[in-house]
Amino acid sequence: MKNLFIASIMLQVVLSAVNVSAQDTTKTWKTGGAIGINLSQVGLKNWSAGGENSLAVNGLITLFANMKNNKISWDNTLDLGYGIIKQGDNPFRKSDDKIILTSKFGREAIAHWSYSALLDFRTQFAKGYDYNTSPKTLISEFMSPAYITLSLGAEYKPNDHFFALISPITGKSTIVLSDTLSEAGAYGVKKGDNMRNEFGWLVNSAYKRTLMEGIDFQTKLNLFSSYKDLKHIDINWENLLLLKVNKYVSSSVSTQLIYDNDIKDTDGKAKWQFKEVIAVGLLYNF
User: Fold this and answer.
1) What is the domain partition of the chain in residue ranges?
2) Residue pair 162/207 in contact by the 8 Å Cβ criterion
3) If 0-12 CB within 10 Å is exposed, 13-18 middle and 19+ buried, where does residue 280 land?
């Protein structure tokens, strides 16, 4: 059950060794990131039309470190996000929560094609609840779930705007460390287990473009299917439209569409998940 963890560690060791050994002068690093915060507040007093006071805060941190050395590339990104909202007399509740770490190593084979290895890790910071039940029901927390995906395949990258990684060799581990969620068999793990391993294929692609000055668009599509159950495909599709007012102020519209046959509701059925966020706030790039 621990094979995927060991493989992930071995991949990081290999990537580190490649970085140390590649010492010629053509090696270049690009590093940077962004820090942002979005605020919204509504205050009402004796408002005849009705409504409730509300306060929402969302923060994000994005970091990247990319290396290019002749035919070798190594791209690393870390995305962190957390948001809370308070409406009326309700206590603060979580509205956004993510930890996403990706590391992709590639070596050019022919024009626009590279041999590639991808490590993708995803989880969240805090506990999440279903507030439609009484009392509220725990449905997630740190490392419950967590997803580790390790892929080997080929990447097609014709330009700086688009890439598609096609991997027929992909291992995916779903981790549920919470005893409560493990006993409930949440996220597809067997009741009482803390991990579920799958072997299958993966397509990971992204497209980004500056539509006009101050307006950027990017979309990411991730598809995975286990060889044991090819009729079901896990889908994660993200879109972001970013409008820059000036160096520090921006607004954004983002959507995320998820389908995972292992995530089922109380009726035992998997459903499409959709999230949409419209935000205005401060964004600092460095």
Assistant:
1) 3-202
2) yes
3) middle
CA dist., res. 33 & res. 27, Å (int): 20
Rg (CA), the chain: 21
The pLDDT value recorded for residue 138 is 95
What Å distances lie between residue 271 and 246, 259, 263, 265, 283, CA to CA? 39, 7, 8, 7, 34
Tokens, residue 161: 């705007």
Whole-structure pTM value: 0.87
Look at residue 17 in the predicted model and tell me its pLDDT. 44
Cα 136 from chain centroid (whole Å): 26
Is the CB of residue 221 less than 8 Å from the CB of residue 231?
A: no
Return phi, psi of residue 132, to 5°.
-85, -5
Parts of the chain with a pLDDT under 50:
1-7, 9-11, 13-14, 17-18, 20-25
Contact 282, 248 (CB under 8 A): yes
Helix, strand and coil percent figures for the chain, each rounded to 5: 10, 60, 30
CB 84 within 8 A of CB 57: yes
121's tokens: 């890790």
Q: Given the structure tokens 């094609």, which residue do they identify?
A: 113
The rounded distance, in Å, linking the Cα atoms of 220 and 162 is 10
Predicted confidence at residue 48, as pLDDT, reads 83
Q: Which of 62, 153, 152 is nearest to 101 (CA)?
A: 62
Identify the DSSP state of 23: -
